[in-house]
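Table S7 (text form). Paired inputs.
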Amino acid sequence: MIPLDLAALGARADAMLTELAAISAEPDRLTRLYLTPEHRRAADLVAAWMAAAGLAVREDALATVRGRWEAPSGTRRTLILGSHIDTIIDAGRFDGPLGVIAAIVAVDELRRIGVALPFAVEVCAFGDEEGVRFPTTLLGSSAVAGILDPADLDRTDAYDVSVRAALATYGCDPEAVAAARIAAEDAVGYLEVHIEQGPVLEREGVPLGVVTAIAGATRAVVTVSGEAGHAGTVPMGLRLDALAAASELVLAVERIGHAGAASDLVATVGRMAVRPGAVNVVPGAVELSLDVRASSDAPRRAAMAAIAAAAAEIAARRGVGIDIAVTHDRDTAPCTPAIVDVLSDAVAALGLPPRRLMSGAGHDGQAMAMLTDIGMIFVRCRGGVSHNPAEYASPEDIGLAVAALVRAVEGLAEKERERR
């Protein structure tokens, strides 16, 4: 086994992360939403890095940048590596891009040391993992997995621009979605490197972890419909105050989340829009977001049912309407045991304990699990902070993650040869 220069791998990846993080819609914070001019610039930079690493580069119908390293045998069997390059608003620089850059650096290292693989490797830089611009998520990985719902192309952003129209403006052909799919029989598996987004690894003093499952998630848009009225003339007892009703519902969501803590249940309202939004008007309508996750599907579904029941009770008592429209629903995605073992062996080969843990955050692996076997490597992040500019993983830990990915690809190659 050829030794790897961990420091060099980490330093190179960290420099690329810094360069990519400079591409933002805002000068003072990192914001790079799906199918925006900033996404275009980031995609072009990633494509250039892929080409420099010797990969054949293309962009599919959903704007996923894909770099392919063909196998010497010409087989269609393909190992997929990657993550996403879209961000939240006011993001950190590691969530998503780390997985793309780690994959590029790992493949370049495999080529440099002359590893011959029995399968092709395709690095994917997905978009829409964060689901910030449109009421969708995982569009890029869903297209590669062949599970994209065509109706999602007609969903619109806050400016009434549809995904379909945004893709056309971006330079993609939304009618060519089918061509983005990788055939299931050709897929060897999917591997992703990602910061943990939690405090477990840091608390235990462990730089890397191996993911066992990705928590299921349900997202919804909740609309509360009351009646706007003059703040000075509508008596308190006659008001149909949509914001007051929405506030009750927010507290109910929090209560239900606390009640399911034993199942790793979390329930969040992260966004609320009040209409008409004037200081002297009783709110007539409120739209709010809902995000519910758990380590298994039954508690999440029970929580959604409990939230619906609470909404119905609040609506009846207050005389308002409450509509819950689910925009995203993904089951828990277990990582494939055989791949978990390969990743654990790769981590152990670096002299590290192969700590196994689940992911409470969603990832592109949830879509890719509908296509093929999946596995993830977590990287320790400072303070467990993520979705925040303070997000940080050290170059030393990143170097270990790239090296683990290299060893994991070699391990899967050995298994592929045994399969034949």
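Next pair, protein 2 of 2.
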Amino acid sequence: MKTLVIGLGNPILTDDGIGIYAVRALRQRLPPDAPVEVIELSVGGLTLMEAMVGYEHVTLIDALWAPADRTGEVAVFSARAMPETLNTRSTHDADLPTALRIGRSLGAPLPPDENIRIVAITAHDVLDFCELPSARVLAAIPDACEAVLSLLRVPVLA
């Protein structure tokens, strides 16, 4: 069973980079022979969809914008629960649900929506330039890693 974990974000935009930082922490918990590929991407839409081609299970770790008082919470949901976003109005790219629909219509071997899980860390400061996430968002990395590990069901390093 081909499984992929993708850490998403832009690590120079404060909390937006949390998916990248979380996947780096996750790598340290996985044994070298874990049947999981772990990558970092700073893309979305069609390019993100293309990275999922050929996998049966995909887990995305990403920031989810929230009000400042809700930062640092971890949420887990499937791609089926994702709404279309304003990116569907862009001529440059599409949101993930639209990209998956396009890929499937073109015959791309993509996992079903229920096999695409999103582990999101709520974040507020996603536009300011800074190479370090805010303290509350950083503090959520262990919980996000635990959420991913429970989805993967693979042995972990102590």
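The chain has five helices and five strands.
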